[in-house]
Amino acid sequence: MNVSLQWLGDHVDFSEYSISRLDELLTFAGIEVEGVKSLPDHLVVAQILSSGKHPDAEKLSVCQVDDGSGTPRQIVCGAKNYQVGDKVPLALPGCVLDAGDGKTFEIKEGKLRGVDSLGMMCSAKEIGLAADADGLLILPPDLKAGTPLSEIHPAVFELEITPNRPDCLSHLGVARELAALAKKPLKGRAHYGETQTPLRPAKAEEVRLESATCPCYTARILRGVKVGESPAWLRQRLESIGLRPINNVVDVTNYALMETGQPLHAFDLAKLDGGIVVRNARAGETFLALDGKEYALETDDLVIAEANKAVAIGGVMGGEDSGVTETTTDVLLEAAYFAPSAIRRTARRLGLHSDSSYRFERGVDPLQVAGVSEFATKLILDLAGGEADPELLVAGSPGEGPPPVALDNDYCRAVIGADLSDATIEGILVSLGLEKADGAWKIPSYRLDLQRPIDLVEEVARVHGLDGVPSATTAWFSPASKADESYDFLRSLQDRLASLGFFETRNLKLISDAQLADDFATNHRGMNPVRLKNPLNDEQDHLRPGLVPGLLASASRNVRFGNGDLRLFEAGRVFVATPKGEEIEHEHLALLMTGARVRRNWTDPKPKALDLHDLRAVLEAICPEGLNFVPVADAKLLCACSVEIGLGKKAVKLGLAGIVPPARARDLDLDAPVLVAELNLKKLQSATTGDIAHADLPKFPGSSRDVAMLVPGDLPAGEVAAFFEGYEEPLLISAELFDVFTDPTGAKLAPDKKSLAYSLLYRAPERTLGASEVEAAHAKLLDSLKRALNVEFR
Amino acid sequence: MLAQLDTIQTEALAAIAGITDEAALEEVRIAFLGKKGSLTAAAAGMRDVPAEQKKDVGQKLNEVREAITSALEATAAGLIAKKDAAAFANLDPTLPARPLPKGGLHPLSLVLDEAVKVLRRMGFALAEGPEIETEWHCFDALNTPADHPARNESDTFYFENGKLLRTHTSSVQIRTMEKETTPVRIIAPGSAFRRDEIDATHLSAFHQLEGLYVDRRVTLADLKGTLEYFFREIFGSKTEVRFRPHFFPFTEPSFEVDLKLQAAGRAAKWIEIAGCGMVDPAVFAEVGRKRGDAAYDPEKVTGFAFGMGLDRLAMILYGIPDLRLLIENDVRFLTQFR
Fold it and tell me: How far is CA A142 from the centre of its chain?
């Protein structure tokens, strides 16, 4: 809402307040100042007395201007759009103008191409009155030279009023609030509650209320008004806060709205057929509003109707053909109270937001309806002549006003945590217009937000401010929660992965339908992705069921930015739905590696591309001992492996690792093999955070034997490893594969064979093994191995 | 015999002086000290030496062996030292290091961790809740009117079953109070979602840090002290903090917190950083109704809550100009936070 400082001055004298002090006062009232439009000092009206050519610059002219001082002032000027005698804004030396981008510049006396120039004549843009302007701003001729421009264009605050404070949606409301905070008296009344005009219950044929949405409707008939242009003061007031003047009657309704917060509507009485009916819209009813658009109404929309048709959408907007125009002579002035939620619903559904609906949907002061009607009537008669019917027609009742609220001052002190005296607490409430009566506080009718003791505490805290409240800190201990444990586990993982050369990424949790195809985490569990009902666009219509789609998108983006060697990870939440539609959220960890194993460098000018074994090395580095990679079939991954801890039935499946199908990778501009893994973080955490127990170190040396064997080329090494794993020989401690050899040419080895070489360690816990014992055990093992896997030893 | 030994020593020392490599060293050792070496042969002649000379000759023999051996050892040591020096002679320490891949954490993780460290020191424990929420947890229980604009489908993501993506982490306040009894002192970092087009200052999914402290006699003074301490730990002990009255449906009184911060080359100005307030008694009443007990009797407990945007905190702390940088994961960007 725009609030004019000059207008506020009608109610409170803020003449000694600077703009920035008022800004602070508003801010600490809880009213956000989004901007202040004000003209700088040293900017005055000047009249151009003469204009001559600049001796050295064709595009410049040298002017003498009257700045009100009595002595002509010389200004060099580049604009061409003026005539001698015009009045223009003149920035005198010392004037600080906005240069855009938060910078300012100060006008100084100087020379332009060798000619003295003692100031600057300005365009509307240069003084911030327009976003764009060509040439000097030509001011109205009746202004007096030397007049500060800030008097013609007073400062205007752009305020953001929080939804709990509809009482501040008017100049009077803001003034009331500021007066309380600045401890200043209001010049006039605080409220338009009182009326001189006699109220008369409307007859049913005059005004009929048929909807609970409108508890109170008043109508005042004005006859013989002369519709025309409003006087300059009124036009200027409306223009200063961004409203367009229309005619004196409509302008008064707008003025009264901005003054009091009570919306009004003026109908051309001649265009109303019969009395007013306030009713809900009929099914299928349409309405042509004064914005020229036709609206389809529903039965919970409120309309103001005459005998045949609706003439306004109640509280929202009047009709195209019932408004006050130049030909209007008799006016019906509506002032009413509409229930907030119904107006909100209608305005929102129709996308039709007006200054009226904005206030009704937040809540206007019902007890002000008659008073504001009277205020506007008087002003219309002043400006447009005519006569008003002596009585105000009233249908329904505005009610009693808000009930009183009791406040225990101790409760107030307990919530705030400051030792405020009773006098301080009560003084604040009194300054806000509350009155203490019978042990409770009588609430002003405009303060719809004050309903409970805590609401009064808020007022005290707000006005008192937190500067006057001590800063208390009480140290305390909390037991670690599950979330703490997860957080700490993740932090250690993040650090380990960073040390392994991985960058942590954070991808959007909303992904496209197409990206779902990149996910391999869901399809193993019979789960479905979770789709939004109202996505913003096709790119973000699903919650991610896994992390790999996002990682792939990030990898693809990096490749396009020239970074093809990538180690990325993400830890975060993923979402799936059970076949029954119940959503489940999991925490996952995903890794992606692609490109060269190291950056090309002088020690390794042709580094090898990362392969699946690099990914597995990383997984082994971040997972506890006993990690197994079990090949599985997967439609979305090449060489897919189930990443498991432990063996057989006890194995815990942490997730999947594999290679993104090269065709898909190439679609994403990823030419090198892309290795990915996605693990369930909670499972990894519980597998990792088992008890750690010390085992005695071996006291006696072991003895190792190497064995090289020829096996079929397609025999997975895992089968040999599994043989060693399951081989029952207490002396065998470990079997480590140290060489894999193949020869596709067949020269050294048959092309369908491969050679695997293992180093086997034998050791006894309680003695040094003799050579013969080792030999015997080794020979037995080789024999079993040969029979089990049909290998040949080399 | 003594003269013969002198000759052997002279010959041997001359031969040793001419040695330039380890092979030659071994040859010389064998020539003099080997099984068939000249000194070994001479020593074998001891048995022919008359008894009265045995002592002198034996002594001489030992002297000569000692001299040859130590000369050989000294030469060997010299050869090894030379070889060691040669091994590193061509090493150029000014060459670039052999690279290891470098990694790092996302700036949001760093900011979060800073915040979590401070708040844990102050006795807050972490808490979490689902991101797919019920309308009750996200709005109703937080005293948000049924026709509040935040509930609109134009502002909030919904699912066909009526659930929604939480619009703030404040729903974790409710989740926590549902299952824990007082005292409750938690922080809940997490994602929140709003139906905003993504641009430099908006993300459809963003990150918040929520805080809640509920107990008997929790006051606005505690809230003030807690947040002042927190922000001064993050932004420096001299940071000015102000509490500006504001409105949130679920706190009363409510404040926005501004910090006076200075970006490089600019005048210090107040920057909005968090929202906070005393938990509205209506929130306790609704939680109590759901729990069916008096653990959160609004007459007996009070509490404060606060929430802040982690993305915004990261922008301010690191001078990040555009929120989209936080979701693009450009390695050139991520490298800056190591």
Answer: 47
- Name the minimum distance, in Å, from the CA of B223 to any CA of chain A: 8
CA distance A501 to chain B (A): 4
Does A557 contact B191 at a Cβ distance shorter than 8 Å?
Answer: no
What is the third-level CATH fold of B107-337?
BirA Bifunctional Protein; domain 2 (3.30.930)
Neighbouring C-beta atoms of residue A789, cutoff 10 Å:
15
Task: Report pLDDT for A525.
Answer: 67
User: Tens digit of pLDDT for each residue in A404-462?
Assistant: 999 999 999 999 999 999 999 999 999 999 999 988 999 999 999 999 999 999 999 99
Query: What pLDDT shows up at residue A102?
Result: 67
pLDDT higher than threshold 90 for residue A662:
yes
Report CB contact under 8 Å: B332, A494. no
Tens-place pLDDT, residues A663-680: 999 999 999 999 999 999
A348-367 exposure pattern, b = at least 16 Cβ within 10 A, e = fewer = bebebebebbbbbbbbbbbb
Tokens 């389809």 — which residue? A296
Q: What is the mean pLDDT of residues A607-612?
A: 95
Residues in chain A with CB shorter than 8 Å from the CB of B103 are 497-504, 567
Closest chain A CA to residue B147: A341
Smallest CA–CA separation between A608 and chain B, in Å? 14
Confidence bin at A135 (pLDDT 50/70/90) = confident
Residue A214: CA atoms inside 13 Å, Cβ hemisphere, count?
Answer: 28
What are the structural domains, with CATH classification, of chain A? 2-38+157-182 (3.30.56.10), 43-153 (2.40.50.140), 199-396 (3.50.40.10), 409-467 (3.30.56.10), 482-688 (3.30.930.10), 703-793 (3.30.70.380)
Q: Do B204 and A536 touch (CB under 8 A)?
A: yes
Taking the Cβ of residue A617 and every Cβ of chain B, the question of whether any pair is shorter than 8 Å is answered with: no
Q: State how far the Cα of A583 lies from the Cα of A576, in Å rounded to an integer.
A: 6
